[in-house]
Amino acid sequence: MPIKIPDDLPARATLEREGVMVMTEAHAVRQDIRPLKVALLNLMPNKARTETQFARLIGATPLQVEMSLLRMTRHKPKNTSPDHMIAFYRSFAEVLDSGEKFDGLIVTGAPIELLDFEQVTYWEELRRIFDWTQTHVHSTMNICWGAQAALHHFHGVPKHELPRKAFGVFRHRNLKPASPYLRGFSDDFSIPVSRWTEVRVSDLPEDAGLEVLMESDEAGLCLVEDKPRRQLYMFNHIEYDTTSLAEEYWRDRDAGKDIHIPANYFPNDDPHATPENRWRSHAHLLFGNWINEVYQTTPFELEKIGAADNA
User: Over the chain, what is the mean pLDDT?
Assistant: First the structure.
């Protein structure tokens, strides 16, 4: 089954060129099936690119998925046109008023990790969103800063500033091969990392039901499952395109920032060389496993999501 996104969303053309099956809205309504409803709370500056990255991953499963785009209510993006936001996004306030429920939610990262959480202008609304997931979302995937923010909100876990940016493609270990989220994963695999802060294993509360699924000797924590709250915390950017780290490197270098070449990324550490993507298959595996697990466990009737912990 294909992914259902708005007919004129810019991501559609990119996905169709890549061979991803994309369903038109007219075709979707003719199918006698309940699609999985997955929302993307997009906090990244380049909205269109992030939409494409996640639509590509959740649209590669055999299930029909309907993706909705959400935004913070009062925050105004600086790098995306107001017309795009008006055409394709709904504010959290609108969704809250509607009472709508979702099978899945993805909360993206944001380039604000050096700020204290309380300094983020939309922090209080984001906290309300995290609480809302407990009654209106069956499963939430939090990415990078979004994962740090959710873990801090639910468990008070701090983030720590790094002396040097964790930047590159690093080897990770599969710590829980029996986890449904790691089905088909290799024992050893690579994932892009791009962050100035980290969450440490030693700060995770022992009695909170948290389970570490992926970890790296060089980059630290990667993926943590929070089964009691139906949350996943992914601290790295497994969704990145092949050139994402290169674009970040050149952007920062051209701006005169002190940035080092991303590790294990450019052939021979030559920033003019074309990097190779060594994480694409595991990105598809992770999101395919997540979508499958949502499908297997979510109530058929959306209104039952969050009711008595889906008992």
Answer: 91
